């Protein structure tokens, strides 16, 4: 198909002239908008088919239905468990050995910080010592401002009543981040130096980054058992991609002339890596470590589903028992931790630069500061080790209980006095927005829906997208959870539409006004660092467990990244173009719709892509918050051993949905940028 | 200051390198080729190698950056390679220390065939026998000046005390005393290039390569740096291969100049020789702007002695630059006798001098010394 009819004169005043077009104006319009027209056509045919064949061939299966595929997957899982118990498979044995190692290191760390170390009634280092060590590290790595941030955060964990859970979460996170970064930086370095390694690793990372954290749960728990070992392994695998990618990128972009000049002095490859590449990429690598740390924190909280210790536990407990106050307070502690880690890492990145500047170890002031801090830490450790008051976090002051009660009372009030309002919103949306679309996807015969999705994929993303869609849909069909997959897909698409609308509106506002940008950006930055889990809680309190809640959480979770992408796209439109369009007398509305948005089209599509993946990961987490469908199948999978097969099938289906949506939007974005006016300048 | 004149140098015979002197050349290049692109090694020897650069690229997609270059550089000589941008200079100089792998040909430095040594040996050569100064400096931004200068010593495993001492010496030599503890981005471009120079000198190489080291600098600073090179050459007497696209710079610094176009050598010789006998229009165009009186020596303007000529004028060396000889020649009523090794080889009359000096603009602003 020809794309030439889509070409426009490089936006210069909003006039569109297609001199080549002959024939009637109606035909011309149709040809120009053939893509929109074909989408509309697909939709019409789909709706008609739905109306005629509704509720036939929908492939609905019962909640406890078994299929050969589920049984086969369940047998694999049983086989793994058996092999683990009798040690018959070297690979499983290796996994077992790793799990044992991780468990013992983890146990040792816990005995230092959070769990009684026999025969002591208390851990080796209690709260005072922990805070002192954290403060010392913060000061040494990032300066006194960070120290002033870290100490109150730690105190807040204790005052909220979750000292042990918070420290456990930090242990899981740091354990995973350290391993992830050691391995990840090494892989990144190899990728930067070898095109072959890069070609091998990149597609793996692509798939890993489209996988929602949730789907790691079940396979990891089968392989490593339930508990800290599986949590750490899952976290470190999930969190590795950013640091790998960013390290490779950082090292690749080290200035060529510097490499050449230092090579000319006869350095070895290792000398180059150590003296030139790593130092020059340091800032970038630290940014990668920061992203890895945030990803690890997300995963480590979700790992509560497989009994990982940490703040995810009270959140999950609260959700299970309907005590949302508990979840909420624990959620606040997670937010505090996320902000603390993000800020500290950013500050450490700056500091790394400064430290290189200020010479060896900084001025005398800093040296004295470090000495004092070290002595203070030693004293705190001594006290903490030997005195109960410095070991067990004091029960008073207690902010957690009043907060919890207040939230519970608020929720109670909402549910009794305001239920008509929240219920109204939720019901209205579900009945008139969600249900019809879900019915179209899930109640049409499967082949109708599949054909429609395929047609849309082909129109949006071209042949490659169509091929990916055929493969993914085929496998989804084969896995036997078609109907649930369509429900999840619907939720995902509806929520993404909301995300994109939000992103375009706010993104345009931000892109056009510095003031809005300055106001919104820090909020979005923070929003992006929070683990998905914590978004669920406040929305659950407001709207109760249902599909709407999960979708809304998805929208809120995905919005920051999407808004920022659109805003950056709008900002990237060349000032010259804007100036020219202004000279041509465009109104503000014309400027936005005819110049800025079309030129930022690939950013909008990228925002759609990211929005979809974020929404997907949230929608499945909402499985236990009433969203049902695939997320629920996964959760049931590790609750009941008879449902493991079905849970695994659901997990794979989620991954397939993710890959399919990712491919369609990625190829769509590529085509859009290949035909967008600015790329031909 | 003055334009560098050839009469301050060893009396080499213009044009041909001093091969007969028995000393080994510091650098010997033979049949050197570099073709970028897939299957580049298949092209040499086939008929395609004869194609022009554009034709070759159209036919095979490969770019012949350096085509069949040969030359020798004597110890202590400053050898300049000149050409327009894209003519293959940077590629050529990188073939000499194998920062780029040659497609064909040989490079011999210090008796070692660079093109075929093992990577370990090559590293060793780079650490001890050659060094390079780059157009964009290539300094390590996270290291202080002194540590940048010491980097070559560090990678070859010298003790910290020794490399400090040596680096300090080099910092002083290039006139950066007091800036040891600055970081590169705190220095001006000219100062950064001095760091690059000190870093190259620190390893005490026999051969120094320069790839347009002053092109990124302002004109005034460029002139300072050129003088610096002249001074350093007098002080340390290294063999230098110097790349530039600026003919003035080439004439000022170079004992001999190699002119390249589209990867090929067009002409090679002393400045005077090139100005006196440009090989083709490309070179003629290049040298048309040069003040000839500052470049040509008496050798190129003298006439054979005729019996009628007066032999009472002042005697001068054939390598004396014309404009320097002008005053004495014009003051004397008799023509200048050109004497080499006590033998009269020609005479230069007033008219010959005036033809060279007056035919061009007043060189007034460039007098001095
Ligand atoms: N890595 C490379 N790959 C392909 N072509 C190159 C490469 N490096 C240089 N060239 C080509 O070789 C020619 C000579 O380049 P260069 O040596 O940089 O010239 P100069 O230094 O004289 O400006 C140019 O046409 C350039 O495009
Ligand atoms: Mg060059």
TrEMBL record, chain A:
<keyword id="KW-1133">Transmembrane helix</keyword>
<dbReference type="InterPro" id="IPR035906">
    <property type="entry name" value="MetI-like_sf"/>
</dbReference>
<feature type="transmembrane region" description="Helical">
    <location>
        <begin position="365"/>
        <end position="384"/>
    </location>
</feature>
<keyword id="KW-0813">Transport</keyword>
<feature type="transmembrane region" description="Helical">
    <location>
        <begin position="643"/>
        <end position="661"/>
    </location>
</feature>
<dbReference type="GO" id="GO:0015226">
    <property type="term" value="F:carnitine transmembrane transporter activity"/>
</dbReference>
<feature type="transmembrane region" description="Helical">
    <location>
        <begin position="285"/>
        <end position="306"/>
    </location>
</feature>
<feature type="transmembrane region" description="Helical">
    <location>
        <begin position="147"/>
        <end position="163"/>
    </location>
</feature>
<dbReference type="Pfam" id="PF00528">
    <property type="entry name" value="BPD_transp_1"/>
</dbReference>
<feature type="domain" description="ABC transmembrane type-1">
    <location>
        <begin position="485"/>
        <end position="665"/>
    </location>
</feature>
<feature type="transmembrane region" description="Helical">
    <location>
        <begin position="170"/>
        <end position="194"/>
    </location>
</feature>
<feature type="domain" description="ABC transmembrane type-1">
    <location>
        <begin position="166"/>
        <end position="345"/>
    </location>
</feature>
<feature type="transmembrane region" description="Helical">
    <location>
        <begin position="34"/>
        <end position="53"/>
    </location>
</feature>
<feature type="region of interest" description="Disordered">
    <location>
        <begin position="1"/>
        <end position="22"/>
    </location>
</feature>
<dbReference type="GO" id="GO:0015871">
    <property type="term" value="P:choline transport"/>
</dbReference>
<keyword id="KW-0472">Membrane</keyword>
<protein>
    <submittedName>
        <fullName>ABC transporter permease</fullName>
    </submittedName>
</protein>
<feature type="transmembrane region" description="Helical">
    <location>
        <begin position="488"/>
        <end position="511"/>
    </location>
</feature>
<comment type="similarity">
    <text>Belongs to the binding-protein-dependent transport system permease family.</text>
</comment>
<keyword id="KW-1003">Cell membrane</keyword>
<dbReference type="GO" id="GO:0043190">
    <property type="term" value="C:ATP-binding cassette (ABC) transporter complex"/>
</dbReference>
<feature type="transmembrane region" description="Helical">
    <location>
        <begin position="444"/>
        <end position="460"/>
    </location>
</feature>
UniProtKB/TrEMBL annotation, chain B:
<feature type="region of interest" description="Disordered">
    <location>
        <begin position="1"/>
        <end position="22"/>
    </location>
</feature>
<dbReference type="InterPro" id="IPR005892">
    <property type="entry name" value="Gly-betaine_transp_ATP-bd"/>
</dbReference>
<feature type="domain" description="ABC transporter">
    <location>
        <begin position="51"/>
        <end position="287"/>
    </location>
</feature>
<dbReference type="GO" id="GO:0005524">
    <property type="term" value="F:ATP binding"/>
</dbReference>
<dbReference type="GO" id="GO:0031460">
    <property type="term" value="P:glycine betaine transport"/>
</dbReference>
<dbReference type="InterPro" id="IPR027417">
    <property type="entry name" value="P-loop_NTPase"/>
</dbReference>
<dbReference type="InterPro" id="IPR051921">
    <property type="entry name" value="ABC_osmolyte_uptake_ATP-bind"/>
</dbReference>
<dbReference type="Pfam" id="PF00005">
    <property type="entry name" value="ABC_tran"/>
</dbReference>
<protein>
    <submittedName>
        <fullName>Glycine/betaine ABC transporter ATP-binding protein</fullName>
    </submittedName>
</protein>
<comment type="similarity">
    <text>Belongs to the ABC transporter superfamily.</text>
</comment>
<dbReference type="InterPro" id="IPR003593">
    <property type="entry name" value="AAA+_ATPase"/>
</dbReference>
<dbReference type="InterPro" id="IPR003439">
    <property type="entry name" value="ABC_transporter-like_ATP-bd"/>
</dbReference>
<keyword id="KW-0129">CBS domain</keyword>
<keyword id="KW-0813">Transport</keyword>
<dbReference type="GO" id="GO:0016020">
    <property type="term" value="C:membrane"/>
</dbReference>
<keyword id="KW-0547">Nucleotide-binding</keyword>
<feature type="compositionally biased region" description="Low complexity">
    <location>
        <begin position="11"/>
        <end position="22"/>
    </location>
</feature>
<feature type="compositionally biased region" description="Polar residues">
    <location>
        <begin position="1"/>
        <end position="10"/>
    </location>
</feature>
<dbReference type="GO" id="GO:0006970">
    <property type="term" value="P:response to osmotic stress"/>
</dbReference>
<keyword id="KW-0067">ATP-binding</keyword>
<dbReference type="GO" id="GO:0016887">
    <property type="term" value="F:ATP hydrolysis activity"/>
</dbReference>
<dbReference type="InterPro" id="IPR017871">
    <property type="entry name" value="ABC_transporter-like_CS"/>
</dbReference>
